[in-house]
Amino acid sequence: MREIIFFFGGRNMLLEALKRRILVLDGAMGTMLASYGEKPCYEVLNKTKENLIQKIHEKYIEAGADIITTNSFNCNQMALQKYHLKESVYDLTKKSVEIAKKATKNSKKAVYILGSIGPSIANLPEDMKSWKQSYFQQILGLLDGGVDALLLETIYDENKANCILGNIEEIFQEKKVEVPVFCSMTINQNGKLLTGTSITRAVEKMDRPWIVGFGLNCSYGMENIVSFLPELIRATDKYCMVYANAGFPNEKGEYTENIEEMLELLQPFLEKHWIHIVGGCCGTNEKYTYAFAKKIALLAER
Hints:
Blueprint: H1 13-20, E1 23-24, H2 29-35, H3 45-48, H4 50-63, E2 67-69, H5 77-80, H6 89-104, E3 112-117, H7 128-145, E4 149-155, H8 158-175, E5 181-185, H9 199-206, E6 211-218, H10 222-235, E7 239-244, H11 259-271, E8 277-280, H12 286-300
Parallel strand pairs: 1-8, 2-3, 3-4, 4-5, 5-6, 6-7, 7-8
InterPro entries: HCY_dom, HCY_dom_sf, Met_Synthase/Corrinoid
Family: Belongs to the vitamin-B12 dependent methionine synthase family.
Binding site for Zn(2+): 218, 281-282
């Protein structure tokens, strides 16, 4: 793996940690909020139920997470417009970082914060200005809040992701600042993005000098992801991350892939250090985080 260098003091500590060991990412925020009876829009809870968001972050940290993600997955103008919160994107996003930072204060170890940027289901218009603007305030809020890195996640359309990456590059140039960026894709049962693009081709199209890692998340569960994980590993010399759903939900909306199954599927990749960040997506909670952290600690002792 080639060395990737950034210049921003503490923000570089995440990359330094990745050079030394596998890091544990948290699990699902939405799953946890639903377990407390909350319903979308989850992003407004950064304002109305700050203590609950902080509590969930703290649960993941206590379970062993080295990295937590901000509660900002859908915090863009298009997603929040139907909740009449279009003008609140920046404030809600920046608040998500502030809450995450509060959650790390009592931790006895370093905990890093990734700024979550989810996909948009809206079609790309001929005029890209309004579409790009939807993400502009979200990115600014994450950067001004002080995240350690940005995470574009659940990428199902590499063209949409490229528009967001263009926004990020523009903001980097304007603010004269860079933070590391990770891009994580979701795939179908054939190992393709929903656009039909292969993992390899999507990585080629999205790659930028300041992107430090690529990953696979969500999808049809860990079994689906590990089937195509070798392609991701071959496609990039950057850090690889994996955080799958706990299987595919059944007719009751229940996720059925248990922790032991997920760990068994992941173990060969962990043992060979082919993946560098591991965590959970939809259907996972702090119990999954604890199991991942325990497994990685055992491997480190060998």
